[in-house]
Design a protein that fits this description.
Blueprint: E1 4-13, H1 23-31, E2 35-42, H2 43-46, H3 55-73, E3 79-83, H4 85-90, E4 93-100, H5 105-120, E5 125-128, H6 150-160, H7 208-212, H8 214-217, H9 230-235, H10 240-250, H11 252-270, H12 292-299, H13 306-318, H14 323-336, H15 341-351, H16 357-368, H17 383-390, H18 395-400, H19 416-438
Parallel strand pairs: 1-2, 1-4, 2-3, 4-5
Helix pairs in contact: 6-11, 10-11, 11-16, 13-14, 14-16, 15-16
Length: about 450
């Protein structure tokens, strides 16, 4: 494609790596001929990643190659670009640019800059809601303020939902409007600064059986009781409409998890301060211990608490951690060790295949007791009781910590009762201090 091509319309793939049921792509193809898809490997994001074999970059690259092959089977192709998106669009003269919304602070800033740039060139920049059912200001309280508690938000979300929200956007009849070109050059992983790794990614097939049994099995990490679809929702290899349709058919509990995802996206949109600060700002005054040696033991799965260590080792080995165990490990770091939730959040952000800023941030602040709709500060997960309840035969633990009953396994890094009392005293002291100031 020439840099100047006023007959071409760009569709910019981002968190929507699929041809089917893609709202922005649907509108681009319905309204235009000569639609050329583009994927930008954004240096502003990729340069922050430390691991040359990053699982997420490998996953994205694999999906982009699938898209390119599918488009070439339709007589079109996918333009792959590595660099700064703003520079890409600075050099471009086209008929229009279509894409789907992104709600994270960096993406909002980037998109605003690109919109201003394209406006100067009289190039339309059209974006659409695709990765959620309801966004931004679509679910608000009666006074017009955003919800900060999940349950009433969820009630309003469910009340507003109807069958139209799960209907797919049928794009196939417009495939003829893709730009007909010869296959363009494929960028290699090494050209974008990464190396291939051998990873076993979860299937994007939605299993009705797993979802139907989700409420019963979801808390047991030794079972295949969760959908493992979070990475596909994160990068848009399945559509949220597909997921909601299956949830309504099989499981209200799984639907509730999809609503939690949108709740945290809404919180991030309305309260971007949560990226670096506690939602409940008084907890920014908390005196964290931040012991680096203990943090390293937690990261490496060597705390002497088998359920915690199993979770961290699973994360380090696979990029996945079961949701129940995520809560246990997060509670342990913030309450037992009194290490700042931001340390744990950043570690998960580096390791999780399904890392999504809003959900990761919301989950960590929930566990630490400093977020919106958080677990109360005095709720401190007891790793032993959690093990008895959710891994009673130690099947999960044995898989990831086979030596947990051997002499070489480390003793507990801290006594549970001592740690619990210390956390309560620390949080209580802050609460009393704030009460004194306000009264």
């Amino acid at each position: 494609m020439n840099q100047t091509d006023r007959d071409t319309v760009i569709f910019w793939f981002r968190r929507d790596l699929r041809l089917h049921d893609n709202i922005g792509l649907y509108h681009a193809l319905k309204e235009n001929n000569n639609v050329l898809p583009v994927f930008i490997f954004d240096k502003e994001i990729l340069d922050e990643l430390e691991d040359e074999q990053d699982m997420r970059v490998n996953f994205i690259y694999k999906q982009v190659i699938h898209l390119k092959e599918a488009l070439e089977n339709l007589g079109s192709s996918l333009l792959m670009y590595h660099g700064n998106p703003i520079k890409f669009f600075e050099a471009l003269e086209v008929a229009g640019v279509y894409t789907n919304h992104d709600y994270e602070p960096y993406a909002i800033k980037r998109d605003n800059q690109i919109q201003a740039l394209l406006n100067e060139k009289n190039i339309p920049f059209k974006t659409y809601k695709d990765q959620v059912i309801f966004e931004k200001n679509e679910i608000l309280k009666e006074d017009g303020e955003p919800y900060t508690v999940f349950t009433p938000y969820s009630r309003k979300w469910l009340k507003k939902l109807d069958s139209s929200h799960q209907e797919p956007y049928l794009i196939q009849s417009f495939y003829r409007n893709f730009k007909k070109i010869q296959p363009v050059r494929t960028l290699s992983l090494s050209e974008i600064g990464f190396k291939a790794g051998q990873y076993d990614y979860p299937s994007k097939q939605i299993s009705g059986k797993i979802i139907e049994q989700y409420e019963t099995n979801r808390d047991f990490p030794a079972l295949q009781g969760t959908s493992r679809l979070s990475v596909h929702l994160r990068f848009g290899t399945i559509s949220i409409r597909e997921a909601v349709k299956e949830a309504r058919k099989y499981s209200q509990k799984w639907l509730s998890e999809l609503i939690w995802r949108e709740f945290y996206m809404m919180i991030l949109w309305h309260f971007p301060k949560v990226v670096t600060s506690s939602f409940n700002s008084k907890y920014d005054q908390l005196e964290w211990r931040n012991n680096e040696k203990e943090f390293e033991a937690w990261c490496n799965g060597m705390t002497g608490y088998p359920i915690v260590d199993a979770g961290m080792r699973e994360l380090n080995a696979t990029g996945f951690m079961h949701n129940r165990v995520r809560m246990i490990t997060a509670s342990f770091l913030t309450k037992h060790l009194l290490i700042d939730w931001r340390w744990g959040e950043a570690y998960f952000a580096k390791k999780l295949l399904d890392f999504e800023l809003s959900s990761n941030n919301g989950g960590w602040q929930w566990a630490a007791g400093c977020g919106c709709d958080a677990a109360p500060y005095f709720r401190i997960f007891n790793p032993y009781i959690q093990t008895q309840k959710f891994d009673p035969k130690s099947k999960y633990i044995k898989k990831w910590v086979p030596e947990f009953q051997e002499i070489q396994y480390p003793p507990p890094i801290v006594d549970h009762q001592f740690a619990r009392n210390r956390a309560l005293e620390t949080f209580d002291a802050l609460r009393k201090e704030k009460n004194t100031v306000t009264t």
